[in-house]
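#structure-requests
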Amino acid sequence: MFKKIYLKVGSVLLSLCLLLGFAAIPVALGQDSSVYSRYQTVPFSGGQRNVQAVYVDLKDPSIRIEAEIAGGQINSVDSLANIATRCNGPGVEAVAAINGGYFNAYQTVREPYGAIQKQGQFIHLGNTGTSIGFTRDNQVFMDSLFVTIRGGVNGSYDWPNNWYAWGINHHYYRPDAISIFTSAYGPVTGYHPYTSVVVEDGRVVEVRQGQARIPQNGYTIVFGDPQWLDRFQIGNEVSYKLEYSRTDFSSGYAQAGSPIWWNDMYTTLGAGPRLLKNGMIIANGSAEGFKEDKINTTRAQRSFIGVRGDNVLIMGTVSNVTLYELAEIAKNMGLVEAMNLDGGASSGLYYKGQYLKKPGRPISNALVVTRQKAPTTPPIKVVLDGKAMEFDPAPISENGRTLVPMRAVFEAMGASVDWDADSNTVIAVREDTAIQMQIGSQLAYINDEAYTLDVPGKVVQNRTMVPLRFIGEAFDCDVKWEGETRTVIISSPPEPASMGKSELEWE
């Protein structure tokens, strides 16, 4: 009886609000402390629209925003639900997701257009529109991001060793273009008539015409202009770095403008146009390089994302609005920063295993809200020379041994790391000590002397995990386990004691 009366009263209030032209009382569905959905009516200058939205309190440290791509490959499409559940893993659950940036929906190769940064690594670049970025501690940044790729050879980024690239994991089909393809694109570059340079463990290992493999521990550079051939000789060390600036459209095309700080971003997704900046309506697609009426002026189904002043993220979908009307709605929802996402048939919103708005087609990429599940036992902590280390993924226990992400622990100990993809072997060198470990094998080598491991290395969440105690002791470190705090304490060997005055000082 109480429930029926409540619904009736709610219905009367809703009708009254609509009659008087006010925004409807928002209805929270499945609300919890930090992530919940709301179906609400929001006014704008042309009337009002129903908005399906998900609210995320970014002050919750268990929340992380991830960029995810269909099938784990940059040129694929899938349902929004399947893309979201790719983020599920040990101790992690996908709570909500919204469709991401624009992509080529009508060609065989479904490459995206905007920037995509996944777990700290850019897997696609695009310099049109606006990008939203998230740090590891859930700080939100929004700007017209332009990413410049600068390459170098044999440790030099100056002429004649410098090179550059137009993009990452994108085919341009122009001989003057240079593109970098990583394993996020897939195992091969796809067919093309240009030169492919395979870089593995930082060195050129293969130069060939046309399609080439993409190594897991490297990348493949594709270009058509033969002037670059002298840079990429077999055995040359090759590297590249990214520089961040605002996109400048003053000349009618995208170019690098003033520098901005983007180095701390963990997740980035590019789309746009921007709707709000500091609470003010922007909504100027042509100023961000968008020329299509369906983006700038046409009324359509649209998706948006933004943040309030209290660091609450809102992502939602609205039907039959223009870009400017969407900006008005976002402002009336209390957002201070907001941007448009891909829309039309791509528009979709997912929450706790169900669609709040199902996309009308498979999509390329999405932003996924994940939550760290409360562990049944406290996490394993690692302290190296008095400094706590952070790992992603977290250390795991296997048969009484602690395994940690390979590259992070080796580099923290001052070792250089190489990876032999053919044999799945890790090679780490520090000073006069070399360690070789084959993933899945209990046999390891220290300076060619064989040792039997209690547990072999393994792959967890696409990261190579290796036994911590063996590594530490191989480098002459003292390794201790504190059971009460579940902490591994590693102490590097002391520096050699001074033998007194040098021969020069005695003289």
